[in-house]
Amino acid sequence: MKLLLITITVAAFCGTVLAQERKNGDCRIIRVVFVPLTKRPDVVRTPRLALLDVCLKDAIPQQRPVVEIERDGRRQFREFAVLRLFADRAEAEQYARENDLTDVDYGAEDAPDRLDAELSAAFSAALSGDYNEESIRRRREFTRKLKSALNDPATFEYRFEKLSGLLGIVAAPDRRLRFFSWDERTGGTMHRMTVVAQYRRPDGRIAAEELNDPELDELPAETDFVVREIYEIGSKKGKRYLIFGRGTPGRAEDFDVVRVFRIGDFGLVEDDSILPEKKAIYIFYPRIDRTNLAYDPRTKTIAYREFAGDAETGFTKPTGRVVRLKFIRGRFVEV
Question: What is the CB neighbour count within 10 angstroms for residue 311?
């Protein structure tokens, strides 16, 4: 009897999967997928396979889990006869011990860790050495690999502990959205930044997209930023995400930026109806200074020090004023 223990996070399901294979031969569990009750994919029903665990929090109505396996080089979907809930791997291990389940293979448990190590190595290699055509190619290849990994539902709640030591990973309080962002280290005073978002769509699917793709973003390159904080805003239009970021356009200046997004049916959508300056607020300031940009969720108020251009120096300087924007009737207004 072969036991497979793997950790998954897929669509709205998460947790540790303890699966038992009772048929002759070996099989590899690839993923758990979810199909509407009204649809019948090429599913093989078998009471001889038992799925002993799946976390059913945030379950999607009218959908059921099926498991894709690989046997003898062929992939097929299997329905499992038993569903059981464990909060985490430790509980699953305890269950296995208490029920004398032996010959447990934890090999697949390492898959996310291997991915974390591979992405970390690729990131370090991409940003090492001089900035030239070859390094640009390596940078774009890393971004492509990261987006591909983040489109895999199994990575949605994985922490990427190694990668998080090399770039910024910031998640929303509800865990439905997070950003991976980093400085491309292109040299010079202007810093190019890349931001990749991973989120759960309304239909439960996991998606990833590059926020500031140079071919798609309307904003100029000098307004690239890394994400520093995410807040949630509830309104009659639905949940919005308030994003704080920071960038370096050069000229011994930095900027803080405020942008607002929502998760649409087909991707992230920037909301231009909430902020006073529509799409974004940019606050440019001398690199040696700070804007003290902050958000108070209790009062729903954004506050920051105001800076203005100085004709004599050509740079910005503080005006001594603190700008306060309060969320009232669906938008931020100055108070």
Answer: 5
Percent of the chain with pLDDT over 90: 36
As a whole number of angstroms, the distance between CA 147 and CA 334 comes to 38
Q: Which two structure tokens, joined as six digits, stand for 295? A: 């958000």
CA 144 distance to own-chain centroid: 15
Q: CA-CA distances (angstroms) from residue 213 to 129, 172, 265? A: 23, 21, 20
Kindly report the backbone phi and psi dihedral angles of residue 67, in degrees, each rounded to the nearest multiple of 5, phi listed first. -115, 130
Strands 193-200 and 206-210: antiparallel
C-alpha separations of 35 from 43, 77, 133, 249 in Å: 11, 11, 44, 47
Distance CA 107, CA 110 (A): 6
Gap between the terminal Cα atoms of the chain: 68
Residue length of the chain: 335
Closest CA to 177 of 143, 202, 146, 148: 202
| Among 293, 269, 298, CA closest to 281 | 293
* Amino acid occupying residue 113: D
Question: pLDDT for 35-68, tens place per residue?
Answer: 444 444 444 443 333 333 443 333 444 455 555 6
Q: Exposed, middle or buried: residue 314 (CB in 10 Å: 0-12, 13-18, 19+)?
A: exposed
C-beta separation of 120 from 166 below 8 A:
yes
CA torsion sign for 326, 331, 333, 335 is negative
DSSP code string of 209-265? EETT-TTT-SS-GGG--EEEEEEEE--TT--EEEEEEEEEEETTEEEEEEEEEEE-S
103, 203, 255 from 210: Cα distances, Å: 43, 20, 21
Residues 297-313: tens digit of each pLDDT: 999 999 999 999 888 87
